Amino acid sequence: MATRGSIAIDLGAESGRVMVGVLRAGGLSLHEAHRFLHAPVATSGAPAWDLPLIWREIREGLKRAAAWAVGQDVEIASVGVDTWGVDFALLGKGDELLATPRCYRNSEHAEGLAILDQRLGRAGVYGLTGVRSMALNTSSQLAGWVARDPGVFRAAGRLLFMPDLLHYMLGGVASTEQSIASTSQMLDARTRDWSVEVLRAIGLPRDILPTIVQPGTALGPVRREITEETGLPASVMVIAPAAHDTASAVVGTPLSGSRCCYLSSGTWSLLGVELDRPILSEESRAADFSNEHGVDGTTRFLKNVIGLWLVQEIKRDLARSGVDMSYEQLAGEAERATPFRSRVDVEAPELALAGDMIRKVRALARSTGDPEPGTPGELVRACLEGLAGAYARTLEQIERLTGRAIGTIHVIGGGVKNTLLCQMTASATGRRVLAGPGEATAMGNLLVQMMALGEVAGLARARELVSRSCRPVEYLPASGAGWERLTGRAVESSR
Q1: Nearest to 135 by CA among 109, 161, 102
Q2: Residue 218 lies in a domain
């Protein structure tokens, strides 16, 4: 009898992967069927995601996954998609695509943020949604777009977030999953449904928003033309996982109690804890924390800190100047660079936008009175030290706001490969770091599907399977006066 398996389509802001998961020997076994790169493309209106490329690569990945499954005597039972948050597509009343999904890294989104500030105020929006106000939020994107071109929304039939759009393309059912909807800053934090007040402030008609479904909801079979093209079984189901990639990553984190926190380290860094209910205090809002929705009614209380986007942009700047270096080479150069030479405020808002990263990093270092980082290694090291310092400050805020003492940081995602940053995180925070799994997002995606199929008995069991399936790398704090200078406090030993 064939073993059942599931497929996770895990789409990040720089790359995508199609992973097959199978329960074997008391753990979750992963097979990477396909991995691909993608990037926003220039359009007449704004940077947009290359949906044709993404959809083509997903189908290629499904084809490879199906072929592998046949060879391994695995029967694929389900498929589900997770992506980054906030971005969306508009479909017309006949379900045609009205516009290619736009990218959140767009300076014009600040216009919509200003509109919401005027109509509701940041404290008002936070009290309703529990989500930090940022120009990249769906709410800001929509408020500006409605103001500029209201006719588009009169023609729109429905709005689908990125994973919802891909689920619709796979199976034909239009809905939105709870965790991805919560990134929009348009859900009521208490009812977990669409906020009438926020929609009114945006000027968005309620009827274009689909029904919200919970993680683990079966959306129906994959379209026949997809199964015929890819070789997937006709019986394979589309199951919504925790469709926001961070929500899936938290499912795939082996959290073992209230003294643990997670750090999802990739293009973005998301540092937080899992709670039973949101924290909507003014202190929480002022500290820029968000309350996003997770599996089984949980709340992900977290802060967005800019992440390895800094290194990605430095790499692109160098390539444009004729210096082509791999991430491994940049990490090696950073490790050899002089420690604590140049301070960089990684939370400076200009760093979130694409372009001229090297110039911006040097200007920020110069503004502190420190020497400008010159070499690639100095540039990357300054950014990584700045990130670790930001993690330390954020961790102190989490402890104060939640009343929890954190002893262990679980680093998950692609950032686990950056051993220098993992060690810096331990040293800057004075906490033990456990790095892994690197594929926590795909694992969480798969495990929620398996929960829906009755193969995994709940969230605690899912995390037990993660613990059995990977062995994290431990990093312990190392002393260094430079961290005191970066964090503004004495660094204590691991708690």
Answers
A1: 109
A2: yes
C-alpha span between 482 and 337 (Å, rounded): 14
CA distance 106 to 101: 12
Q: Are residues 226 and 331 in the same domain?
A: no
Dig out the tokens for 348 from the structure. Answer: 């400076």
Q: Which residues contact 52 (CB under 8 A, 6 or more apart)?
A: none
Where b means 16+ CB within 10 Å and e means fewer, 4-34 reads bbbbbbbbbbebbbbbbbbbeeeebebbebb
Beta carbons of 446 and 23 less than 8 angstroms apart = no
| Nearest to 140, CA basis, from 209, 90, 204, 45 | 204
Query: Among the options 117, 245, 296, 317, which is catalytic?
Result: 245
194, 225, 242 - which closes a domain: 242
Report DSSP state, residue 126. H
- Same domain for 201 and 302, yes or no, is no
463-483 confidence digits (pLDDT tens): 999 999 999 999 999 876 678
Report the CATH number that the domain containing residue 371 is assigned in CATH.
Answer: 3.30.420.40
130 lies in the same domain as 142: yes
Query: What domain range includes position 315?
Result: 244-436+472-495
**446 falls within a domain:** no
- Please check whether residue 449 lies inside any domain of the structure: no
Q: How far apart are CA 409 and CA 429, in angstroms?
A: 9
What is the phi-psi region of residue 155: left when phi exceeds 0, alpha when psi lies from -120 to 50, beta otherwise? alpha
Scan for tokens 């033309």, then name that residue.
225
CA-to-CA separations, 248 to 142, 184, 381, 447, in angstroms, rounded: 25, 17, 30, 9
DSSP letter for 133, please.
-
Domain membership flag for residue 481 = yes
What are the tens digits of pLDDT across the range 160-217? 999 999 999 999 999 999 999 999 999 999 999 999 999 999 999 999 999 999 999 9
Is 188 a catalytic site residue? Answer: no
